[in-house]
Design a protein that fits this description.
The protein has 183 residues and is α+β, with helices and mostly antiparallel strands. It has one domain: Gcn5-related N-acetyltransferase (GNAT) (Aminopeptidase, 3-Layer(aba) Sandwich). The protein has 6 helices and 9 strands, in the order ββαααββββαβαββα. Strands 1, 2, 3, 4, 5, 6, 7, 8 and 9 form a 9-stranded mixed sheet that branches. The protein is globular, with a radius of gyration of 16 Å. Bound molecules: coenzyme A.
């Protein structure tokens, strides 16, 4: 493992390094990967460098970590908190498994648990929230399995392929985490 920060069973999360950029750029230009994300490409390496996404990936109000397979040290995705509001003790969770062939193998669930544990225990968050496209069934399965609850529907909040779609707001609170995982 290279510079591990959060360690799970099959994956670990570490800070991004500049040489991760080409792989991460490939996911953000893959429309199958980004179809359920608010942020969609295109983006090239020069823009990545100019906008310093990787350089700024760890900051006081947001954290993006690289997801890496323990077996072969392969970078496969990204997860963290897109925003952290310290006075409100609230974080907005985000995850992308960029390597599509690894979807449906439990990695999203493992990573979501690791990052939420970090958010509640180390960042002292009281609330973790997210917005998800209502047709992103895999994501909803992951979040409900980890303990997120549906709070409401944002009607026709997003547009994809010329169609308006609903999004769901989901959240988990620290007492709910404690009740479930006994931390
Ligand atoms: C969403 C995402 C993180 C899920 O990661 P993952 O590693 O595939 O998740 P898991 O394997 O832990 O769990 C997914 C579950 O959803 C199920 N699932 C997936 N698509 C489904 C569908 N259409 N209907 C019913 N269940 C479905 C899977 O079978 C799996 O359940 P199981 O473990 O009981 O078999 C991943 O697909 C991804 O990165 N997608 C692109 C970016 C994205 O959408 N991010 C989230 C934005 S809010």
């Amino acid at each position: 493992m290279r510079n591990p920060f959060l360690i799970g069973e099959r994956v670990y999360l570490r800070p991004y390094e500049i040489d991760d950029a080409p792989r991460a750029m490939a996911w953000m230009n893959d429309r199958e990967v980004t179809r359920t994300l608010e942020t969609r490409g295109p983006i090239n390496l020069e823009q990545e460098q100019e906008q310093e996404f990787i350089r700024n990936s760890i900051g006081p109000t947001s954290i993006a970590l690289a997801i890496v397979l323990k077996d072969d040290d392969r970078l496969i995705g990204s997860s963290g908190f897109n925003t952290i509001d310290h006075p409100s003790r609230m974080g907005t969770f985000g995850i992308v498994i960029g390597e599509k062939e690894l979807w449906g193998q439990g990695i999203g669930t493992e990573v979501t648990r690791l990052v939420c544990h970090y958010g509640f225990m180390d960042l002292n968050l009281n609330r973790i929230e997210l917005e998800i496209f209502a047709d992103n069934i895999g994501g909803i399965v992951v979040y409900e399995r980890v303990g997120f609850v549906r709070e409401g529907v944002r009607r026709e909040a997003r547009v994809r392929d010329g169609e308006v779609i609903d999004s769901l707001m989901m959240s988990m609170l620290r007492p709910e985490w404690d009740a479930r995982y006994g931390d």
